[in-house]
Amino acid sequence: MTNMLTYVTEYQNMTFAQLPFNELDGVILAQLAYVDYNILQQQPQRQFSQIDSVTLLEKSVAQTWNPAANYALLLALRQSRRYQQLRWSNWVQHTNVAVEEQFSAVTLTFAPHRYYIAFRGTTATLMDWKEDFNMTFLDTIPSQRTAQRYYDKAAREFPGRYYLGGHSKGGNLASYVVAHSRGALQDAIVSAYSADGPGLKTPLSPQIKQKIHKFIPEASIIGLLLEPGLDYQVVKSNATGIKQHDPYTWQIQDRKFELVATPSHLSQFTQHSVAGWLDNLDDATKQEFLDSLYALFAATKYQRIDDFTTSWRSTLKLLAPELLNTKHETRQQWRHVTGQLLNSVLHEAKNVLDENRPHLRK
């Protein structure tokens, strides 16, 4: 399998002067937003090449979506001449329950006066998923505003050339910062990399488009959410379904991602169905529906998504009384919203059938 780890190993002796920063570097560094720097900071060094404890490296990625691959990445970076200057600073991580925000970012220096700000994507916490869903009815979510402030402060304190990026929600945050930066702060941004991150709901200007490099896998669902245009490239993946959301499954060729023409039919079908569903609901209805659903799951006292899947029998027992105690108006709203989703799915299915009928007749 040829993926990002292969790239780090094969080109470990080529400096950025010999092989300029590219899309693979952009997505690789985005993965470093998931590292728990609170663990790595047990050592005084802030440079990956100087970390001598493999135990700390392993612990720092233990809670990520793909611990084995992230651990292998850290080991490869540690031995790479290309990334020998790579160091981290200004790591922040905070959760604000009141405004439903979960944010984390880190600044990575990979060459003199060359910085990469990695915004963390969606984690396995219920709060993080709720903030993602809030994008459907809010013009701006709290993490987007925090990401803008984080970049503004970094660019003013450390002048230089900036690259931004992130996976999933992190890609959305990076795109948001590019789209909303002005003047010298805009000029300092070289490019941004969104690895299967949701869109910004509105079309972007040509100036902004040329700076944002968005990649989605063939079976993308998350990366096509709130995406109004076709400003993305589709990457071949060796996984199936939602597992393609993991960039380590993305294939590379000739120091670039291996591309395919379009997302899969199922991915496009899902995108159009969800887009139609959201268009049929006003923002107040979206908010009420998501708030009530979040409150229902929060009442179980579970805080992580994997708690719901690994303890599904216990989850059902906890949810049953909460469902019974839900107000009649709330249950009616759920029926309305889910009914609209079903209508959107059926409408999209009819459109697909109508498009294929001429081919079926042949």
From TrEMBL:
It comes from the Bacteria. This is Mbeg1-like protein. It holds the Pfam family Mbeg1-like. InterPro entries: AB_hydrolase_fold (IPR029058), Mbeg1-like (IPR024499).
